[in-house]
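Escalation from tier 1.

The customer reports that the assembly of two entities below gives different structure tokens on two consecutive runs. Tier 1 could not reproduce it. I'm attaching the input and our single run for tier 2 to review.
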Amino acid sequence: MTFLTTPVSRRRLLAGTAAGAAAVSTFTPTRFAIGQTAKLKIGLMLPYSGTYASLGNNITDAFKLRLAEVGGKLGGREVEFVQLDDESAPPKGKDNAARLVTKDKVDVLVGTVHSGVAMGMAAVAREENVLLVVPNAGAGDITGKMCAPNIFRTSFSNWQPGYACGPAMMKDGKKNVVTMTWNYPAGHEQIGGFKESYTAAGGKVVKEILLDFPKVEFQAYLTEIAALKPDAVFVFFSGDGAVKFIKDYAGAGLKGKIPLYATGFLTDGVLQAVGNDAEGIRNTLHYADSLDNPVNKKFVAAFKAMTKRDADVFAVQGYDTCSLLATGLEAVKGDIKAGATLYSTMRNTIVDSPRGKFTFSASHNPVQDFYMREVRGGRDVVLGVAVKALADPAKGCTMV
Amino acid sequence: MDTSYYLIQALNGIQYGFLLFLVASGLTLIFGIMGIINLAHGSFFMIGAYLCWWLTSLTGNLFLGILAGVPLAVVLGLLIERFGIVHLYKRDHLYQVLFTYGLILIFGEMRSILWGNEVQSVQIPEILSTAIPLTEVQSYPVYRLFISLVCMALAAMLYLVVQRTRLGMTIRAGASNREMVQALGLDIAKLFAIVFALGAALAAFAGMVAAPVQSVFPGMGDEILIVSLVVVVVGGVGSIKGAFLGAMLIGLADTFGAVFLPHGAGTVIYTVMAIVLLWRPQGLFGRA
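Tier 1 run:
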């Protein structure tokens, strides 16, 4: 058995796959106190109902897939799951997380998709000093103002995918652009990241359009875009709003005339619903299921075999969450209370992910490659790396 | 920004205006004739949209979804009038406000139980999903023209019914003087039931045709109720003609406000309302 993730320090000492084998061979369960041989309780606080249910399920299934791959144990300890549907309801986020920690006595918190709920979880993680790994929510504050030694994120910060797109658009010769998104935190952060790199590269934002969330009445704005005739349009929408936007954009006759750029959330998971209308949309994301690397090929096939569903970016993030925990707990031989050693191992891990290898920044957010993708034949085809090893600026984080 | 830009934005505004008219006409009739302040009127818009989404996904066809949905909305309207509103005719407006506010909560909870709280989307049927090219980059979606045309036809029908038929005559008489209509031996209870169900059906129908362009979400009823109240106030309470002109005015103001005053977009329609009321406190076609 080889681990796909290994601590940096070990990698330096030991070459190649020997690292994983060595880690396993030095594993001596007899040294453990009773507490460390007991089952490791992981609280999966994710959406299992509502709009985000499929995201929660993909994260969970991929986590379990990875766990099976590493032999069903983390740091030598059997794993017990406590699964809780967070209903994507921010008001309940803090209470639910606190209940998992104090009543269910989970050793690790994993969650969630919705940023508002994840912020509640981060608050509890800080108060109770319990390890939290966030497998999706992109709110900047989680690894910014709220950052803590025991809080990790395996997904992205909202700032990252937008930032990755700016220089790439300038390279495509798109010198002025109209941006459009919902008037809520994720929208501001994604467009904010884009504006930062795009204007720094010499691009000009001629108009910023904000709609109330979750409004999808785009018509008046599309008319305006047609009149402004920018070189391109950059948007952040996702889910049903993305489907509607892509269809309306084509419906208003803009498709093929004013190129559409976006963060990858616009096209991920909606390509089937929008059909031909999405062709040609360029977008940036830290993953694409068509990525050509052995880890991804193996992962995509294994996920399909296990769930009968296609893998997506959310599944990858769940998968990597388990990889990260496996490496961290291996280093401390399952002693979740090892604190500083555990966290510094996790911080220095190189995760060999289906998205490609990535590391962590000082604020515990992935430092990862962002790919430029283009929709061709109903798939997001990878054109190349837009930005290599992009780190979030982690504004307000005291660990940086 | 050339002329065609303003023309296309005007088309967008008029299309929104037609939708507003369908909701506001029911609201103004129910208040003007029955004297009922119906805060739950927007809920019919939301219910219509959810019915449309539900029935369209069952039948696979938007037109079937709407055809099956309208009778359900009529039945719901009749039931609400017969078992709820009927007790409020002789009551003070405060009771009506309280009751119909309660209805909003009940409808919201019903929707949550039956259809959940998610945002849902309805596909535009294949034959209406094309667009008419207008300028080199701009096309106008056929479905939006369809909305405008259908609403225009309904508005014309409503006008003819109110102005030219016996039922319309009774409705107009009822709006002017309820006691007199009753004294003449006309069945006022039946008239009220018809008016209420008609209003509910118009609002629900508006929700149905709007579903593919606005998508379907829990708060959509409250949103349109507030704008429709503005329309009724601007147009003059009880006047169909006022509701029509008010709807067009507010639809255009909202569309142009959204693009010219992006940060004050939400306030434009209220500014228009304030100006109209300063000039004509009773609204454009209200009785002084």
